[in-house]
Amino acid sequence: MVDHCSAYVDGVRLAYRVAGPEGAPPLVLLHALGETAGDWEPVASLLALHRRVYALDLRGHGRSDWPGEYSVERMRADVQGFLDELGLHRVDLVGHSLGGIVAYLVAADRPARVHRLVLEDVPVPRPREPTHPTRPDGDLSFDWQMVLDVRRQLDRPDPRWGRRLGRITAETLVVAGGPRSHVPQDGVAELARRIPGGRLVTIPVGHLIHRGAPAEFTEAVGRFLEVDDAGATDDRPTPAARRTRTGRP
Predict the structure, then answer these.
(1) Mean pLDDT score of the chain, rounded to an integer?
(2) pLDDT tens digit sequence for 120-164
(3) Cα separation, 17 vs 92, whole angstroms
(4) Which of 139, 191, 147 is nearest to 32 (CA)?
(5) What fold does the segment set 3-244 form as a domain?
(6) Which residue of 97, 145, 159, 205 pairs with 213 in a disulfide if CB–CB is 3.0 to 4.6 A?
(7) Are 44 and 19 in contact (CB under 8 A)?
(8) Element counts in the chain: helices (H) and strands (E)
(9) What is the pLDDT of residue 249?
(10) Direct distance between the N- and C-terminal alpha carbons of the chain, in angstroms, rounded to an integer
(11) Beta strands 52-56; 12-19: pairing state
């Protein structure tokens, strides 16, 4: 069963989905630019068999608030505040694309908070040729202003992002999408090399690995997360956090 919940971090409402047995090791999923927590549906139920899975809508996406103020650093702070609000002191963290950038920034900023880190088709931060995206027609499930603000950062990433990769202490698995992905795969491989203890696996189905090959993705991620669950801590939410999770958006 999936519960739709919300938490408030510095006045910003963050919507999330939660599934899996209470008391199981916590696993937080962060989606890509323009996606929502629902993007994880092909794999969330399998990951939730043995873990308490929290799939978050980043600010400006889905049912979370669209506050009009966007940056990758604000999203990082949102995730950190979300962990604090739910009383999750040490988690496994999975991020796809933009969500992967947010995830490695969290792991670099708060090394003790992340036990294991999975980065899905995420390249090392380096400048790229800017493009000028066109807004799709119709209603969107995300704030278009957020896309413009975040893409400017992705085109010219802060040099500190790369310098801080060496601060990550979490065991890290980088999952590459192979030649069918639009993401430069040499950059994905370099990210794995730059993170201490990082390892690389390729599932050659393109950028949307967890959708293109959900069985292979969950097998690789599940095997990685289960290597040493003895190091996981008891991160069951505090009573206050349980109250926060009772409301539906």
Answers:
(1) 92
(2) 999 999 999 998 899 999 999 999 999 999 999 999 999 999 999
(3) 16
(4) 147
(5) Rossmann fold (3.40.50)
(6) 205
(7) yes
(8) 9, 8
(9) 33
(10) 16
(11) antiparallel
pLDDT reading at 78 higher than 70: yes
Apex 53 CA angle, 167 and 216, nearest 5: 80
Q: Is the dihedral of CA 177, 174, 233, 231 positive or negative?
A: positive
221 Cβ neighbours under 8 A, 6+ residues apart:
43, 47, 94, 118, 173, 175
List, in sequence order, the alpha helices (H) in the chain: 41-47, 72-86, 98-109, 144-155, 159-163, 185-194, 209-212, 214-225, 239-244
Q: Residue for token digits 């794999």?
A: 43
What are the structure tokens assigned to 14, written together?
Answer: 């963050």
- Three-state secondary-structure class, residue 52: strand
Side chain identity, residue 32: A
**CB hemisphere CA count around 61 (13 angstroms):** 24
Q: Is the pLDDT of residue 240 over 80?
A: no
Q: Residue 68 carries which DSSP code?
A: S
